[in-house]
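Fold it.
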Amino acid sequence: MNENILIAGATGQTGRIIVQKLIDRGDRPRVLIRDQALVENLFGSHVQAMIGDVRQIESLLPAMDGIDTVISAIGSRTPVGKNCPKRVDYQGVANLVQTALDAGVRRFILISSISVTNLQHPMNCFGKILAYKLKGEDILRESGLDYLIIRPGGLKDTDGGKKSLILDQGDRIAGTISRSDVAALCLFALDYPDELRLTFEAVESDDESPQNLADCFSSLVRDETGASLSPSSP
């Protein structure tokens, strides 16, 4: 699809893969960054770089101008301080969502995390990271935007497309997944022609014969009441 795409968190480990996959298929995405030199080293002239900080909502407005789809791969790196989960995973997402609404963005794809509904999870000992990711999710779900929230399992730096994926809802599964497979799910959602309002978890299975990603995704897509949809549904 011929769309203007903004990637937040483009220089992170998963964000880099998303951007590269977009470049490889001929897109020139817009990336929200704080370090111009880093982006030039990573992607050269294949992206449109916009300076902005998700913690500062006013800095996001120029980057959102003319954007059709936002993909957020942001994530906090420290439990406290200016990059803590509250400021990044919650307020940062909230700022992106608000400016996306103001700019008339069509779709918002958010990478969150498996187990966000488990308040007793050990990761919540580090700045309540999962609790704040869930609050960020809620902001998006309540925004009225067309959205997809992917909750990946433990992220691995392995080649994607090697195993079948398990996509589920209800935050009841556990496991790991390749960052590349998460990026592939983002791109599939980017191109999905119909309305999306979907949250799901994703992990890899033990099956070494990966299924068609379109079939895997389409079998899960449903509205919030649980009614199944197909890619061609009105």
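Helices lie at 13-24, 36-43, 61-64, 85-103, 129-141, 179-191, 213-218.
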